């Protein structure tokens, strides 16, 4: 079942259950996927769908950070709810330990020895963790492990 089909089914369920927030988030995800589909001019691959979902998740996490900085707990709570809904459509997230292992392997493969080689390591790590880990979390682990070298 494609992601769009799953979103359509979940949208119907949310409508019947009168879950306005869930319905709103599903509609946004569906619109983003359809816009991307129009942009590329064909059906999206699973990888492309994952990219769109990751982008949506990143936007919400960034918004959450900004709302918390501004002390807007009302908006932060709303975004937390949206994040929970978007997470349902993403693959299982990697644990901190799994991320550390992937980063350590990438550092070993690239032979990186200093923080100056950050880009080289990130270039190898990000395709492996796409949709399975937050980029900011991966970024922090790479910096930490490269600084230890």
TrEMBL record:
Coiled coil: none annotated. Keywords: Transferase. The keyword Transferase applies. Signal peptide: none annotated. The keyword Transferase applies. InterPro entries: Asn/Gln_tRNA_amidoTrase-B-like, GatB_Yqey_C_2, YqeY/Aim41, YqeY/Aim41_N. GO terms for molecular function: carbon-nitrogen ligase activity, with glutamine as amido-N-donor; transferase activity. This is Glutamyl-tRNA(Gln) amidotransferase subunit E.
